[in-house]
Every structure is written in structure tokens, then in C-alpha cells.
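About this split. The held-out portion is used to measure sequence recovery: a designer receives only the C-alpha cells and must propose an amino acid at every position. Recovery is the fraction of positions where the proposal matches the reference. Here is one held-out target exactly as it appears in the evaluation file.
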């Protein structure tokens, strides 16, 4: 790998892992006390919005701590299925089949796996994960924007995830997931933004499998 590849691809890969996989609140997230009277209603609306998504496809862009940006397409389906497919210059894939979340690195031919319940995306993927119990509403100063912070104060090494919703009558539950921000234990921030949301699109379950790069004898997952 040349110097340019190292400077561009490696930080992007590291940042992605930080954004989606290193902050692991799991099921032990402890809610912080909400102070605004509207907090319970807004948290409930966010839960309703997430549970109302049958399928979703959206373009995403990811900005790492160095300001570098990578983009691609996110596909989501009820049942804990999600796929982050990056632009061709980033040989990386994040995919969940409903039970496990995989980080597939085609450049170095490695696959890492986590149970969904131990992923910060559990709040998005697992409809039984009630973020109204485990999240904290963060004031935004804008009545059309809801920000929910998810972290475990007893496990600071897990980092923090903040999910940002924008009111949109055309989105399920009237709220659209617009952005999430991951802050790891070293205060390194990664931001993922979604745009061009398409709800209710036809998505086959095969979209949540991948070709294992570790050898031709391994079956697709």
C-alpha cells in the first residue's frame, strides 16, 4: 500500500469502526433524567418513527475526525437488517443479517462480527430496544429537530452515540433520522449523515449477505 492509500483508506476504516462498532452501549444503557416536559413525548415519537420503517434506502456520507469524507448507500429492512455499501474507492462493507453485524474488509481480507444487541445500531435495528427508556433528550433550540444521546455512564469506554431526527410529515411517525454522531472514549468524533431517503422500497433479504473474502471455500453469509 502506498502512502496516499494509507493516509486515506486507513483513517476511513478506523473511523467507520469507531462510528458503528466501537461504542457498544448494548442492553445496559442507563437513561439520564430528562428535564424538558416534552422529552417523554419526543422520545416516544422517535421510537414510533424507527418502528414505522419497513424498508429504507438512503445515501450517506461519513466524516471522520480528520475531516475526510466517504459516501455510499445505506439499506435498512425490518428485522434488524442493514447494509452500508461504500463507494468503490473504499473496499469496506458493513452488513447485518438480522442477528449479527459484520465488518468486511476486502482489502486485507478480514471479517469481524458482533451480535446486534451489542451494537450501538441496536437502537435503530432492534425494535424491542426502547430508546425512550435508554436515551437522553438533548435540547436543540429548534422545535423541528430532536436529538437523542445514548451512552452508559458506567462504561465510558463504550463512547456515545447521538441520533438526530428532523420532523418530516412524509416520514414514518413524522420524524426522519437525519444524522448520528459517534464519540469514542478518546473523544474522536465521526458523523454519518443521511439524505435522499426512500421508504417502502423493495429489498430482498439477499441484500444483507456478503461474499466472504477469506477464501473461496467459505460460503456467502
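Reference sequence for scoring:
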Amino acid at each position: 500500500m502506498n502512502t496516499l492509500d494509507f493516509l486515506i483508506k486507513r483513517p476511513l476504516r478506523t473511523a467507520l469502526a469507531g462510528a458503528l462498532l466501537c461504542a457498544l452501549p448494548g442492553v445496559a444503557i442507563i437513561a439520564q433524567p430528562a428535564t424538558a416536559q416534552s422529552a417523554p413525548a419526543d422520545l416516544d415519537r422517535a421510537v414510533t418513527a424507527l418502528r414505522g420503517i419497513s424498508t429504507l434506502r438512503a445515501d450517506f456520507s461519513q466524516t471522520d475526525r480528520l475531516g475526510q469524507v466517504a459516501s455510499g448507500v445505506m439499506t435498512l429492512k425490518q428485522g434488524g437488517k442493514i447494509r452500508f455499501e461504500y463507494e468503490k474507492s473504499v473496499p469496506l462493507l458493513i452488513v447485518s443479517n438480522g442477528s449479527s453485524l459484520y465488518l468486511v474488509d476486502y482489502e486485507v481480507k478480514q471479517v469481524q462480527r458482533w451480535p446486534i444487541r451489542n451494537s450501538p445500531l441496536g437502537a435503530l435495528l432492534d425494535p424491542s430496544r426502547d430508546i425512550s427508556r435508554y436515551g437522553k433528550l438533548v435540547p436543540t433550540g429548534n422545535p423541528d429537530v430532536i436529538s437523542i444521546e445514548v451512552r452508559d455512564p458506567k462504561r465510558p469506554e463504550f463512547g456515545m452515540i447521538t441520533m438526530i431526527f428532523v420532523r418530516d410529515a412524509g416520514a414514518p411517525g413524522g420524524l426522519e433520522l437525519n444524522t448520528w454522531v459517534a464519540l469514542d472514549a478518546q473523544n474522536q468524533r465521526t458523523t454519518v449523515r443521511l439524505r435522499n431517503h426512500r421508504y417502502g422500497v423493495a429489498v430482498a433479504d439477499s441484500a444483507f449477505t456478503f461474499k466472504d473474502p477469506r477464501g473461496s471455500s467459505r460460503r456467502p453469509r
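Annotator remark: The radius of gyration is 17 Å.
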